[in-house]
Amino acid sequence: MSATDLDLPRFACPDWWQRIQAGQTPMAHVPLDEVRAAKALAFFNRLRLPDISGNPTMAEACGQWFKDILVAFLASADPVTGQQIVGELLCMVPKKNSKTTYVAALGLTALFLDESPNRQMLIVAPSHNISERCFAQAQGMIRLDPKLEAIFQVRDHLKSIIRRKTGTKLNVKTFDTAIVTGEIPVLTIIDEVHQLGGKANAAAVMQQIRGGGITRKGGQVLMITTQSDESPAGVWRTELDKARAIRAGKGGPAPVMLPVLYEFPQELQRDQEYWREPVNWDAITPNMGLSIDRDRLIADYRNNGTANREAEQIWASQHLNIEIGVGLSVDTWAGAEHWEASTDAKISLAAIIARCEVAVVGIDGGGLDDLLGLGVIGREKGSGRWLSWAHAWAHPEVLTRRKEIAPRLRQFAQDGDLTIVDRDDPTGDVDELCAIVAQLVAAQLLPEKDAIGLDPYGIGAIVDALARIGVTGPQMTGIGQGARLSPAVWGMERKLKDRTMRHADQPMMQWVVGNARAEQRGNAVIINKEQAGKAKIDPLVALFCAFMLMTRHPQAARVQDIGKFLAAPIVAMRRRA
Questions:
Q1: What is the pLDDT, as a whole number, of residue 227?
Q2: Are 238 and 415 in contact (CB under 8 A)?
């Protein structure tokens, strides 16, 4: 370990990409209890693969990358206190790198090492098929070795393995809200954690599992997964963001999670020419030459992964860990490819008010099971660049009727990009929208005409509320939807590409833009709710409405009758989780 390593925050690994390129495991140096590490590795190496001809041992068949993970997770030790320092580990590795087989073997190794009596360990899978395969691998390893059958008792009907000496159990279960009952597990392995992103109660169950790290000495959680085949959400979004922050040295003074992420840097994920080139695949497929055959992987991509845009999206996310969202979606809106590169972290509503000479607003929304979207675009003083910011509101009905996206919406609420309206405050979304517009009125940034563009349908309540805060009739205008938004769709694409339009750094908008589906109809391009399906695009449509108004080159009305506005009640902006 170098002096530079000693200066880094715990588990930081800023040179992770260089390590991947060099064929090394992309994780920070972890101090070890060398005796325990040797014992763990010796046991693990003797295990045999039950589903491979000849039943090779792990010593022969397992890549060094996973052996590094094994000893770091099971044998970490603080050099001063001797205490375990790796409480959690997140490994993201592409499909077909034997992760389910390897974690089954790691679970057996952990069970063998633990000398405490009558404890509980879990291997958790998101589906019945994955849990069945994981248990079958562990069961098969034991039955290939008579000595292991003397050490472990296998209870097939319960998917449970018991160490005879201690009575400690390793149970293999399918994820649901009742997997943790009674005793909190001392060790939990979660396979394919990305699939928990769409489960409504996943966060609560994860918190319950993590209780083992608080109430028991040595409680641990290992998560191993491929990337999601849609934009990361819920628990998976949270864990991935946390791991990346720790890897970058921004995870606080003493994080407990060790990140091991096999992925391309973000700029190379956006470079589709780069990751489509097979010569670049070796770096993030650590089992190349073991469980993965290079020629077969290439053939699979060319025959299946390139069948259409949707097939490539799924293939790239699973085999190359390409993150889905911006830049890789089915029938994606062309502007999505330039969205992330046009981000400006300094943009906020307050920044638009301070930096812009004029601003316009777009509003789009549907019923109670839809989102209400608000988009603000300002023209920057001096540069003339367009700066945008957005917000959205969701009624509780959205969370119950659109359960598949509920975890995402809750995450966006935590980010501050979306407000979940209280059930007993049905006008809360309109009140808060008006509070935002009121700030622009007070700053005298709105033009006298065509300042606020709205979807002409279902806007009565919004128009009335805006009038009460001093917005005049001429300042509000209906914006035709569907094909009539084509000028904004095309125009925004160009301004994003040439960087004359910049937007706030908002995870919600990355998701929304990734949801946008474009359909050519004659000379028009259509982006609408029907094209997006269950995913939401309302805040983007709101920005399109604002874009249409900004193309009219508006001028702020510097002399406005704001007396009426100042006398009107102002609803403070409220953040609700």
A1: 94
A2: no
Strands 88-92 and 257-261: parallel
> Which residues of the chain register pLDDT less than 50?
1-4, 216, 327, 530-534, 559-577
Find the DSSP H helices in 227-369: 234-247, 266-270, 272-275, 294-300, 309-319, 336-339, 349-355
Q: Are 537 and 529 in contact (CB under 8 A)?
A: yes
The reply to whether 372 and 295 lie within a common domain is no
Give the pLDDT confidence of 437-491 residue by residue, as tens digits: 999 999 999 999 999 999 876 567 888 899 999 899 999 998 888 778 888 988 9
Which pLDDT does position 218 carry in this prediction?
Answer: 56
Q: Do residues 201 and 350 both lie within one domain? A: no
| Residue 202 lies in domain | 3-269
Residue 274 CB neighbours (<10 A) = 13
pLDDT at 337: 80
Residues 173 and 284 in one domain: no
> Domain check: are 399 and 542 in the same one?
yes
CATH number at 496 reads: 3.30.420.280
Distance separating alpha carbons of residues 144 and 451, to the nearest angstrom = 74
Give the predicted TM-score (pTM) of the model.
0.73
Task: Please tell me the distance from the alpha carbon of residue 109 to that of residue 147, in angstroms, as a whole number.
Answer: 14
Domains in the chain, number = 3
Q: Dihedral of CA 203/208/209/213: which sign?
A: positive
Q: Is residue 574 part of a domain?
A: no
Is the CB of residue 375 less than 8 Å from the CB of residue 361?
Answer: yes
Q: Which residue has the tokens 């070890």?
A: 32
Q: Are residues 192 and 309 in the same domain?
A: no
Q: Does residue 515 sit in the same domain as residue 389?
A: yes
**Exposure on the CB side of residue 71, measured as CA atoms within 13 A:** 22
The CB density around residue 140, as the number of other CB atoms within 10 Å, is: 18
Residues in the chain: 577
Residues 516, 5: Cα–Cα separation, whole Å: 43
> How many beta carbons lie within 10 A of that of residue 280, not counting itself?
16
* Confidence at residue 577, expressed as pLDDT on a 0 to 100 scale: 28
The reported pLDDT for the residue numbered 328 is: 58
What is the predicted pLDDT for the residue at 520?
64
Q: 72: which 2 tokens?
A: 């770091």
Do 246 and 340 belong together in one domain?
A: no
CA distances from 103 to 94, 223, 303, 305 (A): 15, 9, 30, 27
